Amino acid sequence: MTFRALVLTQGADRKVSGAVETLTEDRLPAGDVTVAIDYSTLNYKDGLVLTTGGGLVKTWPHVGGIDFAGTVETSESPALKPGDKVVLNGYRVGELHWGGYASKARVKGDWLVKLPAAISPRHAMAIGTAGYTSMLCVMALEKHGITPASGEILVTGAAGGVGSVAVAILAKLGYAVVAATGRPQEGEYLKALGATTIMDRKELTEAPDRPLLSERFAGIVDTVSGVMFAKALAQLKYGGAAAVCGLAAGPAFPGSILPFILRGVSVYGIDSVMLPKAPREEAWRRLGSDLPLDRLDSTVSEAGLGDLMALAPKILKGEIRGRVVVDVN
Ligand code: NDP
């Protein structure tokens, strides 16, 4: 009747402190399904919650972790039964609702997706919200009509979580992938994931300050925003598209309308959090078939609940390579 959790509290200076504690199950929030969690993971948003709360958490003490994978323990939901392997990401779990940095979670059954047989709970968290978001970006480019024959796809923030998985999926699907990174020392890692070209981030940020540059990319997966995205947009080919999901360089971007009205390019906004169930399930199905799990393994490092407070500032500084899987037990 007890479980372990990284319990977060916020001081008067907004600084968040965390301690691994043993709690009784009556502390779990309301919900119709209780899950025994195997693994959680560390995402950029988790970094915000673990350091300052990022304005995302409304009540303390709090249990963070915006995603988790595990096994249904008890269920009042007709769609799920004990023993089902499930994954959760989004729905503001880990922000407004207690999340995955615990050995148990209680949530709404509607928020859970059954894992495809090809994906174990550990692999699900190696993918995590970051990898699932990468899949949503790739699906948006595909729906736009982009194929490997269309030309190169640029991935920004390539050595990060979303970027790494996007590189691996796109390469598996046969795309030529330009991986833009501020860490050229990660070039070999990105090539092993399937990148065809490694681009120093500076090639984008220091590109001439013009609203239109030479046409190069058929598509973009952008995790960074800022100048990098503006200069990438200026290099989209006629009719190309960008799937935009992140803001690692901040929310603003100094863009021009010209790529839209002179080259007919499109931008697709990607939200993983409140996405309806059908595309959510489609994304997990696609991850089961289109993400080479052996390549994914090279992106993974493992941590425990007790490591998270030290890792959080690192993900905010862009110092984490690939994905961190958290063994919560
Ligand atoms: P990571 O920190 O793992 O990766 C971000 C990467 O961006 C870094 O590794 C780095 O890549 C690059 N980067 C960091 N800071 C800067 C900077 N100042 N200028 C340029 N590049 C920078 O985070 P995630 O991959 O987990 O998330 C990426 C973004 O996507 C975040 O903003 C996150 O909030 C967002 N996100 C959005 C979701 C949605 O639903 N829309 C879901 C999941 C994530 P490199 O070293 O290769 O340059």
Verbal overview:
This protein is of the alpha/beta class. The chain has 2 domains: 2-115 and 299-327, Quinone Oxidoreductase, Chain A, domain 1 (Alpha-Beta Complex); 129-269, NAD(P)-binding Rossmann-like Domain (Rossmann fold, 3-Layer(aba) Sandwich). Helix content is 30%, strand content 28%. Strands 3, 5, 6, 7, 8, 15 and 16 form a 7-stranded mixed β-sheet that branches. Strand 9, helix 3 and strand 10 (177-181) form a beta-alpha-beta unit. Helix 1 (44-51) packs across helix 10. The radius of gyration is 20 Å and the shape is globular. The model has no long low-confidence stretch (mean pLDDT 96). NADPH dihydro-nicotinamide-adenine-dinucleotide phosphate binds at residues 43-45, 129-130, 133, 157-163, 181-183, 201, 223-224, 228, 245-249, 270-273, 315, 318, 320.
- Ligand identities: NADPH dihydro-nicotinamide-adenine-dinucleotide phosphate
Helix tally equals: 10
What class would the helix/strand composition place it in?
Answer: alpha/beta
Number of domains: 2
Number of strands: 16
Using only C-alpha atoms, the radius of gyration works out to 20 Å
Question: What's the helix-strand series?
Answer: EEEHEEEEEHEHEHEHEHEHEHHEHE
Instruction: Please state the second-level CATH architecture of the largest domain.
Output: Alpha-Beta Complex
Instruction: Specify the CATH homologous superfamily of the largest domain.
Output: Medium-chain alcohol dehydrogenases, catalytic domain
Distance between the termini: 15 Å
Q: What is the name of the CATH class of the largest domain? A: Alpha Beta
Q: Beta fraction of the residues?
A: 25-35%
Unreliably modeled segments: none
- The outline comes out as globular
For the largest beta-sheet, the strand count, sense and barrel status come to: 7 strands, mixed
For the residues shown, what is the average pLDDT? 96
Looking at how many chains there are and whether they match, the oligomeric state comes to single chain
> What is the helix fraction of residues, given as a range?
25-40%
Q: Return the CATH topology of the largest domain.
A: Quinone Oxidoreductase, Chain A, domain 1
Pfam family, one: ADH_zinc_N
Protein name: Oxidoreductase
Domain Enoyl reductase (ER): 18-326
InterPro entries: Acrylyl-CoA_reductase_AcuI, ADH-like_C, ADH-like_N, ER, GroES-like_sf, NAD(P)-bd_dom_sf, Zn-ADH-like_protein
